[in-house]
Amino acid sequence: MNVFKDGEVSQLHPTGHRGVDIALNEGTSLKSIKDGIIETVYDGSANIGKGVKIQFEDGTEGIYGHMSKVSVKEGQVSI
């Protein structure tokens, strides 16, 4: 699992959201926490703005949102 070096937990969600929001400075490179496949690329029209959903090898998934740009494609391997 990759660990972020910079950033801060910006919001915790008590119900209906089992994730953690972590704010990073704009332009910071972002890596997936685990290996997987890019399942969905969000174009900015959804609530999370530009982002991706990754299906991890262990069956779990991660959603990365509010990104300034997305440079991956659906079906691409994320490592």
What does this protein look like?
One of its GO terms (molecular function) is metalloendopeptidase activity. This is M23 family metallopeptidase. Residues 16-76 form the M23ase beta-sheet core domain. The protein is mostly beta strands and 79 residues long. It has one domain (8-78): Glucose Permease (Domain IIA). 0% of the residues lie in helices and 38% in strands. It contains no helices and six strands. The strands form two sheets. The chain has a four-stranded antiparallel sheet, with no helix packed on it. It has a two-stranded antiparallel ribbon with strand order 1-2. A hairpin with a 6-residue loop joins strand 3 and strand 4 (50-56). The chain is globular. The mean pLDDT is 83.
Short description:
The protein is mostly beta strands and about 80 residues long. It is built from no helices and 6 strands. The strands form 2 sheets. The chain has a 4-stranded antiparallel sheet with strand order 5-4-3-6, with no helix packed on it. A two-stranded antiparallel sheet has the order 1-2.
Keywords, separated by commas or semicolons:
79 residues, mainly beta, Glucose Permease (Domain IIA), 4-stranded antiparallel β-sheet, 38% strand, Cell_wall_metabolism_enzyme, Dup_hybrid_motif, M23ase_b-sheet_dom, metalloendopeptidase activity, M23 family metallopeptidase
